[in-house]
Amino acid sequence: MVEPIVYSGPFENDGAELLTKEWLVTNGLGGYASASLRGVGTRRYHGIFIPNLPAPRGRTVMIPRLDDSVEADGSWLDLTGAEHADGRISGDAHRFLSEFRLDWQTPVWTFSVAGRVIEKRIVMPYGQNTVYVNYRLVSGKTIRTRLRPYLSCRMHDGQLGYAPQWPFSMNVTRGRYEIHAFEGAPTLRLRLQPKNGAFTIDERISSGVLYRVEKDRGHDSVTNLYSPGAFEFELKPSENVSFVASTEPWEALECDCEKILEAERKRLEKLLSLSPRASTDAFAARLTIAADQFVVLPWTRSDENVLYRASGERLRTVIAGYHWFTDWGRDTMISLEGLTLCTGRHYEAKAILQTFAHYVKDGLLPNHFPEGQRTGIYNTMDATFWFFHAIDRYYQVTGDKETVKGLYPVLKTVIEHHQRGTHFGIYVDPRDGLVRGGAEGLALTWMDAKVDEWVVTPRRGKPVEIQALWYNALKLMATWSREFGESPDEYTALAKKVFDSFNARFWFEPGQHLYDLIDGERGNDPALRPNQIFTMALRYSVLDRSYWKPVLDSVAKKLLTPYGLRTLDPGNKEYHPRYEGDRWSRDAAYHQGMVWAWLIGPFLNAWMRVYRDRVKARQMLDSFHGHLKEAGVGSISEIFDGDAPYSPRACIAQAWSVAEVLRSHLALKDLEDLAATQTSVTEGRKE
Questions:
Q1: What angle in degrees, to the nearest 10, is found between the helix axes of 346-359 and 329-336?
Q2: Which of 57, 160, 266, 565 has the fewest CB atoms lying closer than 10 Å?
């Protein structure tokens, strides 16, 4: 059982707090529904129904808003609505809302209105581009209810704006409503479930709708929304009525919402059963459920799904973050252990590795797949080497030798391509064995912020974490080649060369830490950044042990916060303490001071290697418990401000944030359990 996250009313300040927190429901295909707890959209990405459609569409906002109202004493009371550019906020959810709770991953609103108690739930059936918005009259007399959907058909990250040329033609057959925005657009199907109401044609345009977060981010933020009409029905005591929206065939929409909710609960219970530790640990259970939202079928590439299923295999990938990220190679490989291996989802871990192996090209793993596209973008130095790390973790946890043996030929080609040189100036320098990379106008490491032609942290040269990952990959290849009956000599010799070169060149004595980059366009870069922590955090450490403690101490002193590591020393003149303002301002801060939650994982790896202090390590995770109620309810944000109070920023739910906090939490739990067992045995011997 996952303990619900609960907010109880009354809600003060006109519900301002409810506008700052967001709910998220997903469907295992990359599609989602999301908004603020008040039910008001504050982002262009918010909406009741945002399915992930086959290329070239991708995630598409089809119902940006669903206004719900109830009739009392001859007048209509609006429960939800929208914010407008003139300062008005329509809808009085905060007046009537007595409680919001996240029940498993289902958002539930309890309204006390006109002597009635009404519960509202939103769920998306797993594996379907469908949403159910369910209403139940818990107590009180029958009440007339109205639901007004607003329609759109824009890419979820596309420009705002109402297109008056869209005809939004509608076909009606016995309570089934089919809506077409324009030729070639997907069919949107609407209905009430069960059918006990009527739809009234009553076209309206809601003008000047404001998305406040987009305004704060310097984007276009005002739009007009179109509604063709509204459903009306009587909500009777103990009765469930659902608004259903879908792009699926009609036969897939016959099941009532109660059965869908029960199926979803059983699915999540089954997921928890795969990870026994989560069943006895509330924090682990909540993060295990949060992790589920990122592991998806790459539905945009539907043609490949058909081919894989025909061969008896499954495609799986990882959405890097909600709302705007797609699947990224780097994020997927870093997240794989926490999202799948720590949660017992070994088959899906295997599917993810095999899926990405299919996309390796010229020795490179895809950096990411752009929204709605079938082909990947390969501009990355590090994603490919994280692939080796992910495979190693999979092998260590599952012992699945055959899968690793099947991937081994792909890994050999990766090493060969890097030695010969591949795209974006990525190659192994024969003089020192270190990997160099760089291309004009591109950032090839995870510090990849770019605004138009400005690359904020280009890091062209030999970045520190690339050498750590490269060395780890070579050591793993030496181990696997021996195991698979081949000579490890080439990998062993090159690994030694890398180790010697690295330790001879990367130590920055004045700062008692490592250079972030050597042989760069301006020489060696002594900026104190968190990238050096990977030299101690991976299975095979490229850093000589004599440097471990001073490097770790420097990082802890200058970069460690309650939510992870800063990306730059606050004493550096380029340091930015807050992520705010327009796109230029935000991207200037993105890797120049912002705190990244996922970095707490590798930091704790290094911490436990050097200090073995479980108590202190546990304290470093404490803040994430409270954070689950702060921004994206039930999940962990992408980044936090560099200075107190460390406000959460950017994506409200980030795969590697959840994955690394969960992995670290469970790793410490294992050590604590082991210590308790050893203590018990020792005490038993004394007796």
A1: 150
A2: 266
Tell me the C-alpha distance between 265 and 275, whole Å: 16
pLDDT, tens digit (0-9, with 9 covering 90-100), for 618-669:
999 999 999 999 999 999 999 999 999 999 999 999 999 999 999 999 999 9
How many whole angstroms separate alpha carbon 305 and alpha carbon 302?
5
**CA–CA separation, 477 and 499 (whole Å):** 15
At residue 623, what is the residue type? S
Rounded to whole angstroms, the Cα distance separating 7 from 36 reads: 13
Residue 307 has pLDDT above 60, yes or no: no
424 HSE (CA, 13 A, CB side): 26
| Distance, CA of 405 to CA of 625 (rounded, Å) | 40
Lookup: tokens for 654: 């980030």
Q: Which CATH class is domain 7-267?
A: mainly beta
- Let me know: does 356 contact 321? Beta carbons within 8 Å: no
Q: What is the mean pLDDT of residues 561-573?
A: 98
d(CA 392, CA 219): 42
Instruction: Give the whole-angstrom CA distance, residue 627 versus residue 580.
Output: 20
| Parts of the chain belonging to CATH 2.70.98 | 7-267
What is residue 687's predicted lDDT score, i.e. its pLDDT?
60
The Cα 660–Cα 635 span in angstroms is 12
